[in-house]
Design a protein that fits this description.
Elements: H1 2-42, H2 51-79, H3 84-87, H4 89-120, H5 125-128, H6 134-152, H7 155-158, E1 159-162, E2 165-168, H8 172-210, E3 212-214, E4 220-222, H9 228-263, H10 271-287, H11 290-302, H12 304-316
Antiparallel strand pairs: 1-2, 3-4
Helix pairs in contact: 1-2, 1-10, 1-11, 2-4, 2-6, 4-6, 4-8, 4-9, 8-9, 9-10, 9-11, 11-12
C-alpha cells in the first residue's frame, strides 16, 4: 500500500514539473505574441488617442514584464529545476515583488479601461465628461503604478534567498505577507470583475434600448449611422465582458487554492496528499496567467475593427 502511494506521489511530482514545462512554455509564447499584438494595436494612429487604448497599451507593457520575468522564472525554476531564484538574492526579491506588482497593475489598467467604457455610454453628461480623457488616463496609470509599488515594495526588502528557498522574513511578516497576497491577488480581482461584468451587462442592455426608437408607423429603427471608430468602441464592450469572464473562470480556482494552502500549511499531510495538492497548485497558478495571455486573442476574435488595424500595420511593414 505504501509502495503504491509512493509510486503515485512520484508520478504526481513529475506531472507538476511537466505542467510548468509544457503548459508554462505555451503560455509564455502565446502571452508574448499577445502582448506584442496589443502594443501594436493600441498604439495604432486610429486608437492611440482613446483613453481605453492608453490603459490597455500600458496593460500590455505590464503583461510583457509579467511574462518575461515572472512566468519565465517559474518555468525555469519549477519546470526545468534551474535554481535561479533560490541561488540569487536579487532575482528572488525582484520576482516576488513583480509577481504581485505587475499582476495588480495589469488588473488595475484593465479595470479602468472598463470603467472608461462604462462612463462613455452613460446618459448623464456629468458621467460622460469623465470618459475618454487621455490626459487623465496617463495620470491614472502613473498613480496606479506608484500605489502598487507602495503596497508591495516591502517584498524588495523583506524577502531573501535563504536555505534553498525564496522566503519572507519569518514571524509576523510572513503571516502579513501571505494574507496580504490572498486579499489583493486572490480575492480582489474576481470580486472587482464580478462587479464590472454585471455593470457591463446592464450597460449593454441600456445602450441597446436607447439605440432603437419607434418610427412614425411604430416600428423600431436605428437612430444613427455609426462610424468605424464608434463600431470598434461598441465591440470593445463585448471584449471587456469576455475578459471579465475569463478572470472569473481562471482566478476563482487560484483564489481557492491560495486560501486553502495558507489555512492548511501547518496541518499534517501524507506524501501522497502533498503531491496531489502540488499538482493542483501548479495547475491553478498557471491558469491564472490565462487572463493576461488571452487578451489580444479575445480582442481580435470579437472586434473586426481591431483586426483591420493589425492588417494595416503588417501591410505598411
Amino acid at each position: 500500500m505504501n509502495d503504491t502511494a509512493s509510486s503515485y506521489s512520484s508520478i504526481l511530482i513529475a506531472v507538476s514539473y511537466q505542467l510548468n514545462i509544457y503548459f508554462g512554455s505555451f503560455l509564455l509564447v502565446a502571452g508574448n505574441i499577445g502582448c506584442m499584438g496589443n502594443i501594436i494595436l493600441f498604439r495604432s494612429p486610429t486608437l492611440r488617442a482613446r483613453a481605453y487604448s492608453i490603459y490597455l497599451f500600458w496593460e500590455a507593457v505590464s503583461d510583457f514584464l509579467y511574462f518575461n520575468f515572472v512566468l519565465m522564472t517559474r518555468v525555469l525554476q519549477r519546470g526545468f529545476r534551474i535554481p535561479i531564484l533560490t541561488r540569487y538574492d536579487v532575482l528572488c526579491k525582484l520576482r516576488v515583488f513583480l509577481t504581485d506588482w505587475s499582476n495588480q497593475v495589469s488588473f488595475s489598467f484593465f479595470a479602468f479601461a472598463t470603467i472608461d467604457r462604462l462612463l462613455s455610454t452613460q446618459r448623464s453628461n456629468k458621467y460622460r465628461q469623465w470618459s475618454n480623457r487621455a490626459d487623465l488616463a496617463l495620470k491614472i496609470c502613473l498613480i496606479c503604478a506608484f500605489v502598487w509599488l507602495l503596497v508591495f515594495g516591502h517584498r524588495l526588502i523583506l524577502y531573501s534567498a535563504t536555505k534553498g528557498a525564496c522566503i519572507p522574513l519569518p514571524g509576523f511578516y510572513a503571516y502579513f505577507d501571505a494574507y496580504n497576497e490572498i486579499f489583493f491577488k486572490a480575492i480582489c480581482p474576481p470580486t472587482v470583475m464580478i462587479i464590472l461584468a454585471y455593470l457591463l451587462i446592464q450597460n449593454v442592455r441600456g445602450v441597446s434600448q436607447r439605440q432603437i426608437a419607434p418610427t412614425s408607423n411604430g416600428t423600431p429603427a436605428n437612430l444613427t449611422q455609426r462610424s468605424a471608430l464608434q463600431l470598434m468602441d461598441s465591440r470593445l464592450t463585448l471584449m471587456l465582458m469576455l475578459q471579465s469572464f475569463v478572470v472569473l473562470i481562471t482566478y476563482i480556482p487560484f483564489a481557492t487554492q491560495l486560501m486553502y494552502s495558507n489555512i492548511t500549511q501547518y496541518c499534517p499531510k501524507s506524501t501522497l496528499r502533498n503531491a496531489q495538492e502540488s499538482v493542483f497548485a501548479e495547475l491553478t497558478h498557471l491558469l491564472s496567467y490565462t487572463f493576461f495571455a488571452s487578451s489580444f486573442y479575445v480582442s481580435i476574435i470579437t472586434n473586426v475593427g481591431f483586426r483591420r488595424q493589425i492588417k494595416k500595420f503588417f501591410k505598411k511593414s
